[in-house]
């Protein structure tokens, strides 16, 4: 009875223990993580719950970020330390469902098949390059790692040996079979095939690309091609290529005139010419005056002149703003400011201010009251004491009448 209870308790604990072991395999509660042995296998963890996943055939898991789920071609993923892959699923031209693979049973090192979901497309490497098995890309023959694909084997070219005092680091040699191409011998030993752009040929004297007219042996290298192209353009002008036309001019080829086949459409800003010319005036008539050209003139800038005053003329009285505060009319509802006014008029005491001293201020005006006015006397007035010079000595106030 006791043994049965212990066994039952162990069975109850076993599922929990197993769940803890699975959760401990996740490096983090959430994310995508690569397998330690197989390059195309990875795991997806969600809240410490692990799920095993597998990339498509020919692809491997790219462990670049735990938050990113990404499978790339095997050649683009670093599988160091986890070289195992799933069992391949080959097709007619593809070793796996995805990837780049060499052509089976072919000696052409420059061709390969690009496979996607088991469907292969034949591709050809650029001139001078071969398909590398390890990297799955087009590379130099000496770096492809393929036996029998070196230029010495495929192009039948070997870098010539030169004396040590005449050696160049990376000499160039013309391709004996094609004027457009040349070979670069790396360190004077390993050949690599390069080419000039369309319309140029290699000049062995300058070790650079040049126009065909500068290389007598290759002066007619493009002639046959240009003859066929422009013969087709004669039949169909729409086949004219601007790139080929530029290359023909660069190569010194006599491009035929085709102005009658090219229609030039004027733009919106082109000048329109009237269909009919205006009639000429009769010979015996009076000639009409032609249009006169008026040259634009710069307008003159007018400056105001100062006002002039005739001698003996009384100067204008000047007003100055008053210093008194404005009177404010206050009511029970609104507050209205009184209209602005000026306090007084004034005259300058300095007689030199006036052109004619006779026009200076006088006391004959009955509407003015002197500031120091006293009781009137019939006798002569005593001499005034010397006053301190002041700019304003006589003030004129408006006449104010008081109620009797």
From TrEMBL:
Segments of skewed composition (Acidic residues): 341-354
MF (Gene Ontology): chitin binding
Keyword hit for Repeat: yes
Start and end residues of each stretch annotated as Disordered: 266-404
SMART domains: ChtBD2
Pfam families attached to this UniProt entry: CBM_14
Protein name: Chitin-binding type-2 domain-containing protein
Organism for this UniProt entry: Scylla paramamosain (Mud crab)
């Amino acid at each position: 009875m006791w043994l049965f209870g212990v066994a039952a308790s162990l069975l109850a604990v076993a599922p929990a223990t197993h769940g803890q072991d699975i959760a401990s395999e996740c490096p983090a509660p959430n994310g995508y993580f690569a397998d330690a042995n197989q390059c195309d296998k990875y795991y997806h963890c969600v809240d410490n719950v692990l799920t095993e996943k597998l990339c498509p055939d020919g692809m491997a898991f790219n462990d670049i970020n735990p938050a990113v789920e990404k499978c790339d071609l095997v050649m683009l993923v670093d599988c160091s330390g986890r070289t195992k892959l799933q069992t391949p699923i080959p097709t007619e031209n593809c070793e796996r469902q995805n990837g780049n693979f060499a052509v089976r049973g072919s000696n052409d090192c420059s061709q390969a098949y690009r496979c996607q979901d088991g469907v292969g497309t034949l591709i050809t490497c650029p001139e001078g390059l071969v398909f590398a098995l390890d990297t799955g890309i087009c590379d130099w023959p000496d770096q492809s790692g393929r036996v029998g694909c070196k230029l010495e084997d495929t192009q039948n070219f070997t870098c010539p040996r030169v004396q040590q005092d005449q050696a160049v680091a990376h000499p160039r040699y013309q391709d004996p079979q094609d004027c457009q191409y040349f070979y670069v011998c790396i360190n004077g030993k390993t050949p690599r095939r390069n080419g000039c752009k369309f319309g140029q040929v290699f000049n062995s004297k300058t070790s650079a690309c040049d126009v065909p007219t500068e290389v007598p042996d290759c002066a007619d290298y493009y002639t046959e091609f240009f003859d066929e192209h422009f013969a087709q353009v004669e039949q169909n002008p729409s086949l004219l290529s601007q790139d080929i036309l530029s290359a023909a001019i660069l190569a010194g080829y006599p491009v035929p005139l085709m102005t009658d086949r090219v229609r030039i459409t004027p733009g919106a800003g082109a000048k329109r010419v009237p269909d009919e010319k205006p009639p000429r005036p009769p010979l015996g008539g009076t000639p009409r005056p032609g249009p006169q050209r008026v040259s634009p003139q710069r307008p003159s800038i007018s400056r105001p002149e100062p006002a002039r005053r005739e001698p003996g003329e009384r100067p204008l009285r000047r007003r100055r703003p008053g210093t008194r505060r404005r009177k404010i009319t206050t009511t029970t509802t609104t507050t209205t400011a009184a209209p602005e006014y000026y306090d007084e008029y004034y005259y300058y005491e300095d007689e030199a201010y006036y052109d004619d001293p006779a026009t200076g201020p006088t006391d004959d005006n009955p509407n003015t009251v002197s500031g120091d006015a006293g009781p009137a006397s019939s006798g002569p007035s005593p001499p005034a004491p010397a006053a301190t010079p002041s700019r304003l000595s006589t003030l004129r106030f408006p006449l104010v009448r008081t109620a009797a």
